[in-house]
Amino acid sequence: MHSARLAIDPSFVVGPVRRGTFGSFVEHLGRCVYTGIYEPGHPTADENGFRGDVLGLVREMGVSTVRYPGGNFVSGYRWEDGVGPREERPTRLDLAWHSIETNEFGLNEFMAWTKASGTTPMMAVNLGTRGIAEALDLLEYSNHPGGTELSDLRREHGVEEPHAIQLWCLGNEMDGPWQLGHKTAEEYGRLATETARAMRQLDPSVVLVACGSSGSSMPTFGEWERTVLTEAYDEVDMISAHAYYREEDDLGSFLASAVDMDYFVASVAATVDAVGVARKSAKRIAISFDEWNVWYHQEEDPIKASGGRWDKAPRLEEDVYTVADAVVVGNLLISLLRNTDRVHSASQAQLVNALAPIATEPGGPAWRQTTFHPFALTSRHAAGEVLRVAIDSPSYENKRFGSSDLVDAVATWDADGSALTVFVVNRAQDEATRIEVPVGAFGAVEVVEALTLANDDHHWRASAEDSTSVLPTSNTTARVEDGTVTVELPPVSWTVLRLRATR
Ligand code: AHR
Q: What is the distance in A from the centroid of ligand 1 to the CA of 217?
């Protein structure tokens, strides 16, 4: 058995646990909306057509903000198509996903769904095929109380009170050549700045996210952020980061994906801070990690991915996740928490069916994928302040990073509730790892619960028929002795260790 030691102290504070870390993403992509969150006629659907089984799972997952309506989709979207009487809404081609968009579900349905699910919106404006005027129209329709054409139109559409949407993305992945209306950094920097300025003139309370690079492997990564923020620094609050990981030929590299996420956050922070320093600005731009997940995206070309057909709500990007994928998702959440001083908002991409922790069948069941569990448990138990964990762990060799720690962890400390929670992964494939955590700095401590997600078959996947035979189960090895907590972590596992200080 391997062994590792985690040092934790209440003074190792990184920053607050932010509810915004537990955001998700609903895009008009494949079956995320249609037959995902929305399916009139489904046995569990409410009067709005929202699937009740999915609403229950979203609440159980503890999702905070939900980004909408894209993603690549937003760069060709006309928001007006999705409001007003349904029978008058146009059916259009969605070029981003080579699909048919009926517009049955739009802004007001989404806002009603956020209320039903207990989530808050993160809205994106189209800066691909559209610009400042349309962003202002959408903001006026959404947030202005009344007495103008567009705010009164919302009221005619049955929504008396303004939606008061606070968080807005200024376009999506505008550096990507696949993006409709994609731009150079200079072009986007100017457009984002002017759109932000105009939006604040209409509603000064908005919180604005500029597009960072669509990935750290983009040739323009770094320079894009520098150029965009050189224009937009004073006008925006956050810059976005997107990262997707997948297992290829080397499970060890995949299990260490959080190393890349940490490095990515540090690189974006360094780049944006350099802009701030050059401007002699006291303002600090935060990071909105508004797309992250495991994604087995194989086909870049949407025409090929859709088989060349124009279908309504086609089955696209419906990854079926393994236990190893869930361990990586748990580890990516550890990284996001560890970076809470810089990452103020995050969205797992996406919520239902398309690269998602929740899966559904039309007219049939909804179930939890393996990746559901670490998200739900982290969202439920992370509280108070995030504590950095000093890790003394054996390392292992892998192709991508050379050498990585076998164990990774973060802790949260809720002084009011005396709750100390440790989220920890064991990346070892061969053996269990026994961890020791001296907790004397918290006084006397007892174990409330230890839950571990693991399986001998690291590639076990949930299905409609069996989504419950691999669940996080009680880890009975957890104990406290002489001020030190010990627990054995099975190979390729994710664990939440809940402790309580008793005096
Ligand atoms: O989340 C799926 C897609 O990934 C999004 O539409 C896009 O922004 C990213 O490339």
A: 15
272, 277, 281, 286: CA torsion to nearest 10: 20
Nearest-angstrom CA–CA distance, 421 and 427: 20
Nearest CA to ligand 1 atom 8: 71
pLDDT in tens, 236-283: 999 999 999 999 989 999 999 999 999 999 999 999 999 999 999 999
Q: How far is the CA of 179 from the centre of ligand 1 (A)?
A: 10
Cα–Cα–Cα angle for 463, 465, 471, rounded to 5 degrees: 60
Q: Say how far apart CA 23 and CA 65 lie, in whole Å.
A: 4
Residue 411 confidence (pLDDT): 98
Any ligand 1 atom below 6 A from CB of 172 = yes
350 lines ligand 1 (CB under 6 A): yes
| Ligand 1 pocket, residue 173 CB under 6 Å | yes
Q: Which residues of 221-247 are buried (b: 16+ CB within 10 A; e: fewer)?
A: bbebbbbbbebbbebbbbbbbbbebeb
Backbone angles phi, psi at 137, to 5 degrees: -60, -45
**Residue 96 has what DSSP assignment?**
T
Place of tokens 């929670």: 421
> Active-site residue 173, yes or no?
yes
CA distances from 133 to 194, 490, 491 (A): 11, 55, 54
pLDDT digits (tens, 9 = 90+) for 29-83: 999 999 999 999 999 999 999 999 999 999 999 999 999 999 999 999 999 999 9
Protein residue with its CA nearest to atom 5 in ligand 1: 71
109 flagged as catalytic: no
Closest CA to 125 of 176, 79, 65, 166: 79
> What confidence tens digit (pLDDT) does each residue in 156-204 have?
999 999 999 999 999 999 999 999 999 999 999 999 999 999 999 999 9
Provide DSSP, 456-485: SSTT-B--SS-SSSS--EE-TT-EEETTEE
Catalytic residue from among 80, 134, 235, 291: 291
Ligand 1 atom having least distance to the Cα of 242: 9
User: One-letter amino acid identity for 414?
Assistant: D
Closest atom of ligand 1 relative to the 96 alpha carbon = 6
Rounded CA-CA distance 25/21 in Å is 12
Question: SS3 for 357?
Answer: coil
Say what the pTM is: 0.98
DSSP secondary structure, 440-454, as one string? GGGSSEEEEEEEEE-
Instruction: Establish whether the linkage from the previous residue to 69 is cis, with ω within 30° of 0.
Output: yes
Q: Ligand 1 center to residue 488 CA distance, Å?
A: 37
CA distance 442 to 455: 33
Catalytic residue, from 27, 173, 225, 385: name it.
Answer: 173
